[in-house]
Amino acid sequence: MDIYVTELWMDHALRYDHMSPCKFNLSLNSEILDQIWKPNTVFINSKAAHIHKSPFKNVFLMIYPNGTVWVNYRVQVKGPCSMDFSAFPMDRQSCHLTLESFSYNNQEVDMQWTNWTDALSLLKKEIILPDFVLTNYSTSIERQIYPAGVWNELTMTFVFSRRYGWYIFQAYIPTYLTIFISWISFCLGPKMIPARTMLGVNSLLALTFQFGNIMRNLPRVSYVKALDVWMLVCLTFVFSSLLELAMIGAIGAKMDVSFLRTQSSIFSRAQPFIYLLFIKYTFSKSFLYSFVT
Questions:
Q1: Which domains does the chain have, with CATH numbers?
Q2: Average confidence (pLDDT) over 37-53
Q3: CA-CA distance, 121 to 134, in Å (whole number)?
Q4: Quick one: pLDDT at residue 243?
Q5: Where are the alpha helices (H) located in 55-192, listed in sequence order?
Q6: Residue 123 has pLDDT above 90, yes or no
Q7: Which residues on adjacent β-strands are paired with residue 75?
Q8: At 44, phi and psi to the nearest 5?
Q9: Please, which pLDDT band fits residue 126 given cuts at 50, 70 and 90?
Q10: Which phi and psi angles does 54 have, rounded to 5°?
């Protein structure tokens, strides 16, 4: 993630408002930053971070007459995200970046978010990634106790929502079609056992292969994901159509054709109705999340 970090602090040793004439501010080279006092702010939870150097070190330094130091630098940082795939692929993920003074506790450096402007703002109106969209961001401040004292931690939280269009076309629509194909067996006569068996078995094999192909590209976690529930229920519906075939076949050996048609008609109406209800409630995110957690 590329971000601009702005820091302001007061250093009375750098005051020059007593001089006359006095400039409104001084913009200095970034090399001067190594010669003055700094709060030594770091991303305490980052995995990697570096300041851009294209074509030179991207650091801005300004000093005001009252001794206020303004430092702005462009940094690329890689931070942790608390991943929860319970509602996958309609999930939301939160990522956190925490700033802290590495060398000074809050008795020496009292780190705070600015209150005269937005502490966190976006340079772009909308941030869209290949798989995610930034939907929310916020800031917070916490106190962390260490053996050497108490430190103020400034945390930025970014919430990303997954773009699930790819999964609609690769997972949901193909499973719809497979279920609908398995229902063709309900339209066939109760005596057409070979044709109905072929449709049911082929649908079950196709869905099983598709399930394995999808799972191969998904994150491996120890808990059940929403997509797992979807695929397993679809497998259950196809398998139930085979059970209906077996029941009709077993009853057919003892009953007449009119009774078979009645029983087959009941199954052919009940299963699509139940499946459509399942589709309706599946795309309710609150239902999905509560079902898998």
A1: 2-162 (2.70.170.10), 165-292 (1.20.58.390)
A2: 93
A3: 13
A4: 82
A5: 165-167, 173-182, 184-187
A6: no
A7: 3, 51
A8: -70, -20
A9: confident
A10: -125, 110
